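Q: I'm writing up a methods section and want to include an example of the input and output format. Could you take the sequence below and give the corresponding predicted structure tokens, formatted cleanly so I can copy it straight into the document?
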Amino acid sequence: MNAKKHPSTKLFVLDTNVLMHDPTSLFRFEEHDVFVPMMTLEELDNNKKGMSEVARNARQASRTLDGIVGGFEERIDRGIPLDGPSSQLASGRLFLQTEPINGTLPTTLPTAKADNQIIGVMMHLTDKHPKRAVILVSKDINMRIKARALGLDAQDYYNDKVLEDTDLLYTGTREVSTDFWEANGRDMESWKQEGRTLYRIKGPLCPDLLINEFLWQDGERPFHAIVRERSGKTAVLELLKDYSHQKNNIWGITARNREQNFALNLLMDPEIDFITLLGQAGTGKTLLTLAAGLTQTLETKLYSEIIITRVTVPVGEDIGFLPGTEEEKMTPWMGALEDNLDVLNKPTEEGGEWGRAATRDLIRSRIKIKSLNFMRGRTFINKYLIIDEAQNLTPKQMKTLITRAGPGTKVVCLGNIAQIDTPYLTEGSSGLTYVVDRFKGWPHSGHVTLMRGERSRLADHAAEVL
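A: Here is the clean output for your methods example:
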């Protein structure tokens, strides 16, 4: 293998799970070279069967490799330039293992295991190219620890990470300082439009604002507004509707804190098609979303029905041999929905038990529960689509779901990025983090991170001390 390129470019050895996590990872290493051991190809072959996301990615990775290798006429051992197949994304070369490598592994590592054979290839390449950085790329933590223990260089695959640090994730809200009006309120215009109060401000803060970002200030003159327009150093703010007041209740629910008020302003705005709500357990994500959905489905008839889907971890696998229809099979995953409907369907004085049962049947007839597996190829028109537990979706699955939305559909994604159950997904690479980051500032989307739990004093105390 002729890999004596400039020593400053690195040689990355890919583990199978990187290719199965992101089939396009071959093109993500810019000017550096990529080495694919024979064992990686063997494991791709072992994982190609089935309908799961992993099998689909394994097949896609194999097709990508076939496309690169198939069109190359010269000797493969000299490396295949990637600039053509990657449409100039990468300028390095792809090396496949073309010779048997019998690296001397420590006796403690059984050679029958695929991971250890890849580590053997790493040791061989490190000896062969002493002046070059040879780095193992793997999503498997134990594999990276083993490689480092043997003195080899190993890294996680970072390319799909939206953010290094989730503390930097857009929260959708911004506290403005006490001198906000002095600095940005010169030549301020104010007017009313269809019952809404708008302000046009100019000042140094305006270029940093994002459309549909919430601004708030506490103090003698509390102030809650949303950014509606922004161009250069001017911005238009709209005062929020106060959903914490009983007269503005949504299906009997009022906002209990500032962020819940922000969330209800987004949920009740027909101009906003895509909403993400992040928050710990008990912050009211599902309850607010359902209350807004029921109001707009049953009272204002803006949407024809509510569709709820949630990731059944294991993600996208078969929903299994439970008896019954798709709806009935999804019931065990929908306990959270039932709990919230109990809150929303409080017994009223007039109707008594019968009235309550009738209301419950009416509500249930407008809520459909769907499994993720059957979403491909569908189009939802005039629906209110709720994606619950969205932190367990990969960016690709998230794209599949959001692109189902037809005209008049609103999509609401709920989740808590601190509770990810899917293997190989982290807070930085979750589909939920991805959409929050990509959609910020789009005029028809909004995001709020809910901070305060509103379940009970017991739950709040447990969250603090446990």
